[in-house]
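Try this one yourself first.
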């Protein structure tokens, strides 16, 4: 048994799921409980920039698609600004641009997707610019802690 410095036993961990999508993406699970869904349109209809679809499949260690994964995405707008007050610009973005969304995988294929705009280069800590990217957080059954990664764009070789 693991013990913390206080002498108390460590609390057992628990993985997400198998029903994580019901709580975090209820419309995808057939529950229409929000006036405005958290879902797949990150940019909204009035966002400036090039419309894109970000999609993928998460595979487990055996090569099988993970059918119950939830993917959360955060991104800057086309000008490289995050919709957050701690963004160096103050988070001033166009109306309707949320900059984040949640999607679950298709229960048969494992495919997840977001409709959005291509983000611009964003401010880097300490100055400079970061290459355009979408931040992704993945949660699924069998994952104790959400996995974080970034998706970059192959047409941004110089920035990458």
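Now uncover the answer:
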């Amino acid at each position: 048994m693991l013990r913390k410095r206080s002498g108390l036993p460590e609390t057992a961990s628990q993985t997400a799921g198998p029903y994580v999508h019901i709580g975090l993406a209820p419309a995808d699970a057939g529950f229409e409980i929000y006036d405005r869904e958290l879902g797949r349109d990150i940019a909204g209809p009035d966002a400036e920039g090039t419309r894109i679809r970000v999609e993928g499949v998460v595979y487990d260690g055996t090569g099988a698609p993970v059918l119950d994964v939830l993917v959360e995405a955060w991104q800057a707008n086309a000008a490289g600004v995050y919709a957050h007050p701690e963004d160096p610009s103050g988070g001033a973005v166009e109306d309707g641009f949320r900059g984040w969304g949640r999607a679950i995988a298709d229960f048969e294929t494992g495919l997840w997707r977001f409709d959005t705009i291509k983000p611009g280069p964003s401010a880097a800590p300490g100055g400079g610019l970061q290459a355009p990217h979408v931040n992704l957080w993945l949660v699924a059954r069998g994952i104790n802690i959400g996995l974080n990664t970034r998706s970059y764009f192959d047409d941004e070789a110089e920035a990458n």
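Discussion: The first strand starts at residue 51 and ends at 57. The chain has a mean pLDDT of 84.
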